[in-house]
Specification:
Helix content: 25-40%
CATH class of the largest domain: Alpha Beta
Number of helices: 13
Radius of gyration: 23 Å
Structural class: alpha/beta
Largest sheet: 6 strands, parallel
Shape: globular
Strand content: 15-25%
CATH superfamily of the largest domain: tm_1862 like domain
CATH architecture of the largest domain: Alpha-Beta Horseshoe
Bound molecules: S-adenosyl-L-homocysteine, iron/sulfur cluster, FE3-S4 cluster
Length: 449
């Protein structure tokens, strides 16, 4: 008892959520948090496989931990090392071969089995590995989280993906799409609110494909689930991510019009502006479909802002295709965007294609696209100056007497405000747009309805 756990997390918000749930899973076995690997008895590396560098980071971190483990073996309590997450799922056996000092490896669907896997490793079993997609539901078997929740909390409602975009590993590492029952989601949301959360972000690799068992008969889609969550006592704000354009139903668009707690901000990855590339990517939509969707969303909720993901240098992307991405970026005017050089992932269809784009060309395209996206983000932020926005105050600001929070559009906002407003949504006037945040002053009628 009294052992300590350190979890290192890479990748998406779903991994952040999973890391917290792994800590929950080990709490009954007597594990409390350790701030650093040096102070830990068990280190779990929760990995991401989406692009090359993530796996490289894993092996460099493993090297560092190996040295720590050797030093520890010379005297003191042993250090155990586990690898979890999407690299574990994709390359579990190779990890054990390349880093035999790893005590055990587990995939994202088996976190509820953590205590049993650890016990096997502690009993002296070498190369413990569990990459199953078990029939039993992981979430039903994980112990509930304890202690205070943050003011902003994540809640995974859907996992996996059946879309098989040509470039993407997620369908292989996270398995088929599945949704948690609505009652389980509502119960977890109530518990988060009781522990202090004010904003909940629903997570899923394809969150808007959600189709969970309804509390009565049948299933609920995401729009229905959002409506039920919005009724919960204490909930100020709802968000969801990541969505696929194809699953953006009319009902969900209407939810943005009808549910005030649903923030007017949507992450809607487009990946490319070229119909040819979108087809090669197997995205199942073209540029026209995306533009029409944005039109419908903006008609339903005129203050809605969008963020997106782009990939440059997908196999077969010509200069003209790339320019179509630039043109789409310019036309939509994203408030925020993430852009990546295409990274061939083993086992995905795109990785085997002959027409790979050269590294230097990918670099050039990425730099050009990012300049465009930065300009559009700066324009969006500048457009906020003079507006009154509701801000959820989540922590101390940069200077004494300041608090910081988030706008509806996830922009960090700094303002002078008394500490007792922490955790409240206040009306603020945006006074300046800095490169990565906004400055604001409290409105006289500072509390939002
Ligand atoms: N489910 C989400 C995306 C999940 S992955 C969706 O459908 O959009 C997050 C982002 O990583 C993707 O949107 C994509 O832009 C990027 N990405 C995925 N695979 C990639 C690859 N092989 N190379 C470069 N970027 C990739
Ligand atoms: Fe990957 Fe495409 Fe599924 Fe998103 S929709 S997780 S990009 S396969
Ligand atoms: Fe990475 Fe897996 Fe998330 S590959 S982006 S951690 S689903």
């Amino acid at each position: 008892m009294g052992r300590r756990l350190h979890v290192l997390t890479w990748g998406c918000q779903m991994n952040v959520y999973d890391s917290a749930r792994m800590s929950d899973a080990l709490a009954p076995a007597g594990f409390g948090p350790a701030a650093t690997p040096e102070e830990a008895d068990l280190v779990i590396l929760n990995t991401c496989h989406i692009r090359e560098k993530a796996a490289e980071k894993l092996f460099s971190e493993l090297g560092r931990l190996h040295r720590l483990k050797l030093a520890r073996a010379a005297g003191g309590a042993p250090l155990r090392i586990a690898v979890a997450g999407c690299v574990a799922q994709a390359e579990g056996a190779e990890i054990l071969a390349r880093a035999p000092y790893v005590d055990f490896v587990l995939g994202p669907q088996t976190y509820h089995r953590l205590p049993a896997l650890l016990a096997r490793a502690e009993a002296g079993e070498a190369g413990v590995i569990d990459l199953e997609f078990p029939a039993e539901a992981k979430f039903d078997r994980l112990p509930a989280s304890r202690g205070p929740a943050g003011l902003t909390a994540f809640l995974t409602i859907q996992e996996g993906c059946d879309k098989f975009c040509a470039f993407c590993v997620v369908p292989y590492t996270r398995g088929a799409e599945s949704s948690r029952p609505a009652a389980a989601v509502l119960a977890e949301a109530r518990a988060l609110l009781a522990r202090g959360a004010r904003e909940i972000t629903l997570l899923g690799q394809n969150v808007n494909a959600y189709h969970g068992e309804a509390p009565g008969a049948g299933t609920w889609d995401l729009a229905r689930l959002l409506a039920a969550l919005a009724e919960l006592e204490g909930l100020e704000r709802l968000r969801y991510t990541t969505s696929h354009p194809r699953d953006m139903t009319d009902g969900l668009i209407e939810a943005h019009r009808d549910i005030p707690a649903l923030m007017p901000f949507l992450h809607l990855p487009v990946q490319s502006g070229s119909d040819r590339v979108l087809a090669a990517m197997n995205r199942g939509h073209d540029g026209g479909f995306y533009r029409a969707l944005v039109g419908k969303l903006r008609a339903a909720r005129p203050d809605l802002a969008l963020s997106t993901d782009f990939i440059v240098g997908h196999p077969g992307e010509s200069e003209a295709d790339f320019e179509a991405s630039l043109a789409l970026a310019r036309e939509i005017g994203f408030a925020l965007a993430f852009s990546f050089k295409y990274s061939p992932r083993p086992g995905t269809p795109a990785a085997g294609r002959a027409e790979q784009v050269g590294e230097a060309e990918k670099e050039r395209r990425l730099a050009a696209l990012q300049a465009e996206l930065r300009a559009s983000q700066a324009a969006f932020n500048a457009g906020c100056v003079g507006r009154t926005l509701p801000v959820l105050l989540t922590g101390p600001g940069r200077h004494p007497g300041q608090l910081a929070g988030r706008s509806p559009y996830l922009q960090p906002v700094h303002l002078a405000a008394p500490a007792e407003l922490l955790g409240r949504v206040v009306a603020v006037r945006i006074t300046a747009a800095l490169p990565n945040s906004l400055s604001a002053t409290l409105e006289p009628e500072r509390l939002c309805a």
